[in-house]
Amino acid sequence: GAVVSQHPSWVICKSGTSVKIECRSLDFQATTMFWYRQFPKQSLMLMATSNEGSKATYEQGVEKDKFLINHASLTLSTLTVTSAHPEDSSFYICSAWRVTSGPNYEQYFGPGTRLTVT
Amino acid sequence: SQQGEEDPQALSIQEGENATMNCSYKTSINNLQWYRQNSGRGLVHLILIRSNEREKHSGRLRVTLDTSKKSSSLLITASRAADTASYFCATDLMYSGGGADGLTFGKGTHLIIQP
């Protein structure tokens, strides 16, 4: 099956610094990727839609200047958390969208990146 | 707010029993999917049911979809200790004009299987 990887799998950073998380589709091209955030004991919330070659679309309440998304190639999207604060500590999960046949498609999730801001 | 709502929020049963989780959503959908997540880990895709399907089976899993009630259920039969995890339903909305859509996740059911 299709594989999506994330790097790093976990990261600890100091408050005020920036952290970049990568999401790669390893065996297929993904024009669209999604970024989700999951706080402890909560569900996943869609943060933004990342489109290759164009600006990301952010969900309501997600600060686009704080969460910078770059989808420069068909296999890589990056999420940069700028000026991170402890409240940004969360599990960040990406997914890649792949058309399977006709109108059908599937989303493949990465393993997630746990960010801890101290 | 999240579209999907699962109930119960937590469920504890004995190994070997069946576990049923329910999910409700608010608007018309293309597909509904169920995922499992072990504590602190990534998502495992369990099953996808399309809006024109009513029931689907995969091993010990049985999923139903009632679009008139905007609800779905996930049944795990003959539960095992390894089934202990959080289970989420996720929907993608009907849209026109092409393009991909992110998933809307329910709040999840935390399932504990007592050995």
Report on the structure:
By secondary structure, chain A is mainly β. Chain A is built from no helices and eleven strands. In chain A, strands 2, 4, 5, 6, 9, 10 and 11 form a seven-stranded mixed β-sheet that branches. In chain A, strands 1-3-8-7 form a four-stranded antiparallel β-sheet, with no helix packed on it. Chain A is globular and about 45 Å long. The mean pLDDT of chain A is 92. By secondary structure, chain B is mainly beta. In chain B, strands 2, 4, 5, 9, 10 and 11 form a six-stranded mixed β-sheet that branches. Chain B is globular, with a radius of gyration of 14 Å.
Number of strands of chain A: 11
Number of helices of chain B: 0
Mean pLDDT figure of chain B: 90
Please tell me what the overall shape of chain A is: globular
- SSE series of chain A: EEEEEEEEEEE
Assign a percent range to the helix content of chain A: under 10%
The assigned structural class of chain B equals mainly beta
Order of helices and strands of chain B: EEEEEEEEEEE
Helices and strands of chain A: which structural class?
Answer: mainly beta
